[in-house]
Amino acid sequence: MFTIKDLENLSGIKAHTIRIWEQRYGFLKPQRTDTNIRNYSNEELKTILNISLLNKNGFKVSKLDKMDPAEISAKIIELNTAGSVTERTINELVKLMVDLNVYAFDTVLREHIAEKGMEATVTMIIFPFLERIGLLWQTGRINPAQEHFVSNMIRQKLIVGIDNCPAIERPEKTILLFLPEGEHHEIGLLYINYLLRSRGVETIYLGANVPLKDAVFVLNLKKPDIAFMHLTTVINGQNFPEYIMEVSNCFSGTPVVVSGHLPRKYDQSELPNIHFMHSVQEVISYLSN
Q1: How confident is the model at residue 234 (pLDDT cuts 50, 70, 90)?
Q2: Of the candidates 140, 138, 118, 139, which has an alpha carbon nearest to the alpha carbon of residue 127?
Q3: Rounded to whole angstroms, how far apart are CA atoms 180 and 184?
Q4: CA 187 vs CA 41, 194, 210, 212, 270: distances in Å
Q5: Ordered strands of the 256-259 beta sheet
Q6: Which residues lie below 8 Å from residue 139, measured CB to CB, with a gap of 6+?
Q7: Per residue in 44-89, pLDDT tens?
Q8: Is the dihedral of CA 234, 239, 240, 246 positive or negative?
Q9: What is the DSSP string of 128-165?
Q10: CA-to-CA separations, 122 to 112, 114, 153, 162, 280, in angstroms, rounded
Q11: Helix %, strand %, coil % of the chain (to 5)
Q12: Distance in angstroms (rounded) separating the CA atoms of residues 192 and 228
């Protein structure tokens, strides 16, 4: 079951507008708790996503209320502007995530990658999709199984994209990529790995949950030009500045790019070899230079 706030976050329609639609039309009939709090089913989530998309593209809600689901689906398929197609795809992924529809979720991603390419799919579809459902993960509104399902489907696509990048015989630069110990959210790092490999940069990809001593071992053995890490949560009970100080000392003389949720709270690092990046675009610009 979803709250009215969940519907607002997923559809972009304000909660007070949803309440008005409930009063005037018949397509939403939420259950109510003993304290009169609305709860919406999976099917009602799908309905509001469809109605909101068509309403944003000029359809009156009063007319949509009189259509059956097949008619609404047909109208959605007819939408052909770039923005509406993107939102339709994101909405479709949300619905398929709710149903744990493996085949259809995979098909939507595979077809979009084949048509638009990996970079466009990640920036236009995958990241906005993950951003939209992120609040549901944080508030426990979707089951952890749904989170793992989504993450691993996207992870598989990125790995295939990386595997299809050409081999690099004489790399000019080598970049070490890893997630700190205790950090398991790998999609952002995988995407950076894909961007680098597709541009002919050699990477040493250690992946998730890497103890700092192991990253230092690789640093001393392979001597990469840059190290790249991603921080979402505080590591092993340390606060962020303490951990960054430890990284700076261990990687003395090697530039370390740090992206993720935690660095966004800080403007710049005072440590000469640490560089905070606050967006994917900033990371790409830095690594391109």
Answers
A1: low
A2: 118
A3: 8
A4: 29, 10, 15, 20, 28
A5: 202-210, 174-180, 226-230, 256-259, 274-276
A6: 6
A7: 888 888 888 888 888 898 888 888 888 888 888 887 777 788 888 9
A8: negative
A9: HHHHHHHHHHHTT-S-HHHHHHHHHHHHHHHHHHHHTS
A10: 10, 12, 13, 13, 11
A11: 60, 10, 30
A12: 9
pTM: 0.78
Model pLDDT for residues 167-211, shown as the tens digit of each residue? 887 778 899 999 998 888 888 899 999 998 988 889 999 999 999
Instruction: Specify the amino acid at residue 259.
Output: S
Check pLDDT > 80 for residue 25. Answer: yes
Gap between the Cα atoms of 183 and 194, Å rounded: 19
- Hunting for tokens 């939408």 — which residue is that? 79
Backbone angles phi, psi at 229, to 5 degrees: -135, 165
DSSP assignment, residue 216? H
* Spatial distance between the Cα atoms of 90 and 10, rounded to a whole number of angstroms: 10
Q: Which amino acid is at 74?
A: A
- Radius of gyration, alpha carbons of the chain: 22
Q: Which residue has the tokens 């940069």?
A: 201
Cα–Cα distance, 253 to 258 (Å, whole number) = 15
Tokens of 173: 């630069």
Find residue 205's DSSP bridge partners.
177
d(CA 108, CA 92): 8
> Looking at the chain, how many residues does it have?
289
Token pair 């009169």 in the structure block, residue? 36
Give the pLDDT score at 141: 66
Positions of E strands within the chain: 31-32, 38-39, 174-180, 202-210, 226-230, 256-259, 274-276
Q: From the CB of residue 84, how many other CB atoms can be counted at a distance below 10 Å?
A: 16
